[in-house]
Amino acid sequence: MPMLSDNPMWEEMAARALALVDYGGAEIGECRAAVAATGGGGPDQWHDAWNTVAQHLDDAGRVSAVEGDPVSARDALLRASTYYRISYCPLFGSPVDERLRISFEAEEQAFASAADLGAGNLRPIEVPFEGGSLPGYIATPDGDPGPRPTILQVNGFDSNVHEMYFSNGPAATARGYNWIGVDGPGQGRNLIRDGLPLRPDWETVVGPILDHVEAIDEVDPGKIVLTGWSLGGFLAPRAAAFFSDRLAALVADPGQWDQRDAVIAGLPLSDEEKGRFPEVERSKIDELEQRLRSESADPMLRWRLIDRGLWVTGTETLFDFFARMCEFELSPVAGDIGCPTLVTINESDPISAAAPRLAEAVSGPGELVRFSDAEGAGGHCEGLARRLYHDRVFDWLARTVS
Q1: What pTM value is reported for the model?
Q2: CA 247: distance to chain centroid?
Q3: Looking at the DSSP assignment, which residues form a beta bridge with residue 127?
Q4: For the residues 219-236, what does the mean pLDDT come to?
Q5: 79-137: pLDDT as tens digits
Q6: For the CA atoms of the chain, what is the radius of gyration?
Q7: How many angstroms separate the CA atoms of 325 and 220, rounded?
Q8: Are 349 and 323 in contact (CB under 8 A)?
Q9: Backbone angles phi, psi at 340, to 5 degrees
Q10: 94, burial (CB in 10 Å: exposed 0-12, middle 13-18, buried 19+)
Q11: Is residue 156 very low, low, confident or very high in pLDDT (cuts 50, 70, 90)?
Q12: Which CATH number fits domain 121-259+328-402: 3.40.50.2300, 3.40.50.1820, 3.30.70.1050, 3.90.180.10?
């Protein structure tokens, strides 16, 4: 039974906000109001409804700041940042919709303003990268200035550093860890403003990030835990294979394997053709792409593969998208992951199906942790049971990172 909407696309996108309720990133009633205001409308109505709630909170937060109530101000601004982000999700695609750019800038400003007001002891960082920089944030616990163990976050396919703060930041700082999140290519500002697409060689991203964060005063360079959310469950292990000697531990939520195993499974190809893809005729995918681009296509599937998929990967055709995703390989390097590794698997999250394979492949100590619907932790990345997730993961880290 849906929680907020009978429209599967709106239900899935609203769930992104609901997953942040527990740590101050959203309120259930505000999400319900935004979905209700969308009514039976499409992406335009969705954007307007969520943007309206975000703007109201943004304005209220800034009034609270002027009136000397920083707690109310930062609480409102943090939630506003979430709703701006949720508002532009259906607008994904290339060329970038101007409304998406405007809402993203508002999201950035709201989150930065909350940080300026002391939310989470957050402060921005910029990591030098290939002639430019990658934006991020560090959150630190109250009290002892450190150095401390640090959670280094890797985002998923369509997440950004603001969303990732709520996924792990407050839970980390409450337990005495720093939390650091950095947007890589294909994520957040790097995609929306700079047009940098997602890349499979995530070790080239994490290397410069490690160089930067190891020099931060609050960070104990011998106790950095690399953790990945969603597609980060592939990207983080990929990077860890090259930097195990610089990591105290790795957490993959959920654990994944080579992306070709998932992306080509449903293609209209024979088993033989799937085995040698992309060395097949490009026309084999044309009919599928035409269907997905048609008005009769399933909106969520079209959004995932055409609107979001092509944009994030910097590809122009569905064939090129699938070929690009086949380059995301972990199998050649998984055995080089020598640091202690925790891998999650969720019985109702299809992308975690290969998690046991990752846990078995690492050369260091590997542990598989299961989550289920029966305990209220079903779904992608345990979105509605993040405290249960944090209890299990941080208990493991307490035993592992000494």
Answers
A1: 0.96
A2: 21
A3: 134
A4: 98
A5: 999 999 999 999 999 999 999 999 999 999 999 999 999 999 999 999 999 999 999 99
A6: 20
A7: 35
A8: no
A9: -55, 135
A10: middle
A11: very high
A12: 3.40.50.1820
Beta bridge partners of 154: 228
Paired tokens of 143: 């009290």
| 109: Cα within 13 Å, side-chain hemisphere | 14
Q: What's the pLDDT score for residue 297?
A: 94
Is the N-terminal amide bond of 278 cis, ω within 30° of 0? yes
1-117 CATH fold: de novo design (two linked rop proteins) (1.20.1440)
Residue 252 has phi, psi (to 5 degrees) of -115, 115
Could you state, in order of their start, the residue ranges of all structural domains in the chain?
1-117, 121-259+328-402, 260-325
CA distance 181 to 254: 18
Closest CA to 167 of 393, 12, 5: 393
Terminal CA-CA length for the chain: 43
CA–CA gap between residue 393 and residue 391 (Å, rounded):
6
Q: Residue 259 pLDDT > 80, yes or no?
A: yes
User: How far does CA 290 lie from the centroid of its chain?
Assistant: 29
3-state secondary structure labels for all residues of the chain: CCCCCCCHHHHHHHHHHHCCHHHCCCCHHHHHHHHHHHCCCCHHHHHHHHHHHHHHHHHHHHHHHHCCCHHHHHHHHHHHHHHHHHHHHHHCCCCCCHHHHHHHHHHHHHHHHHHHCCHHHEEEEEEEECCEEEEEEEECCCCCCCCEEEEEEECCCCCCHHHHHHHHHHHHHHCCCEEEEECCCCCHHHHHCCCCCCCCCCHHHHHHHHHHHCCCCCEEEEEEEEEEECCHHHHHHHHHHHHHHHCCEEEEECCCCCCHHHHCCCCCCCHHHHHHCCCCCHHHHHHHHHHHHCCCCCHHHHHHHHHHHHHHHCCCCHHHHHHHHCCCCCCCCHHHCCCCEEEEEECCCHHHCCHHHHHHHCCCCEEEEEECCCCCCCCHHHCCCHHHHHHHHHHHHHHHCC
Using alpha carbons only, give the angle 30, 34, 35 rounded to the nearest 5 degrees. 120
Alpha-carbon span 311 to 230, nearest angstrom = 18
